[in-house]
Design goal:
Layout lengths: L1 E7 L6 H11 L3 E5 L13 H20 L5 E5 L5 H10 L5 E9 L2 H13 L6 H9 L9 E4 L5 H11 L8
Helix pairs in contact: 1-6, 2-3, 4-5
Length: 172
């Protein structure tokens, strides 16, 4: 049986970096970052573009889930609403996989510090800080397991995620 890791969290919480580490820890793993399915300039959010990105994500995840080579499929994206998680799961072939729905969380101070460093380094624009902070409380309402990232290295977060793979499946 495969394991599908759905790893959500607000911008700057450490999803991509932790999932890259998780991919190294787990056997026969593949990783998809939802942002890779919608890297556009200008970045335009409409009903049409949202439907497109969800179709892109589900197509790729289903390909990974059907491929006999992969035992662990890792996906990360902001996923700040239960409807996003539910709509993705509704389109995925989960007949031979256990789902681990996880939200990475941290304190507002940690988030501001991380994003401030990214802004200073030119990796993000300053407006991301307030947008990300505003989403942080939304993760408490989701049907996900929460993994704090404060004071942890990406490897330590990945180890926490890997340990969840040994727990009974979650049912988002």
């Amino acid at each position: 049986m495969k394991t599908l890791y759905l790893v959500g969290g607000t911008m700057g919480v450490g999803k991509t970096t932790a999932c890259q580490e998780l991919k190294k820890l787990l056997p026969h793993s593949v990783f998809l970052d939802g942002d890779w399915c919608w890297d556009a300039d200008p970045f335009v959010v409409t009903e049409e573009t949202m439907a497109m990105v969800r179709q892109n994500i589900c197509f790729l995840l289903n390909q990974f889930l059907r491929c006999s080579v992969y035992e662990n499929v890792i996906f990360c994206w902001v996923m700040h609403q239960q409807e996003i998680i539910d709509s993705l799961l509704a389109e995925l072939d989960r007949s031979r996989c256990a789902v681990r729905a996880i939200s990475l969380v941290c304190t507002e101070d940690t988030l501001r510090q991380r994003l401030g460093g990214d802004v200073a380094a030119g990796r993000r624009t300053a407006d991301v800080i307030e947008r990300s902070v505003a989403r942080l409380p939304l993760y408490g309402a989701l049907r996900t397991l929460r993994v704090p990232t404060d004071g942890k290295s990406p490897r330590e977060v990945a180890e926490s995620l890997a340990a969840l793979g040994k727990a009974p499946p979650t049912a988002p």
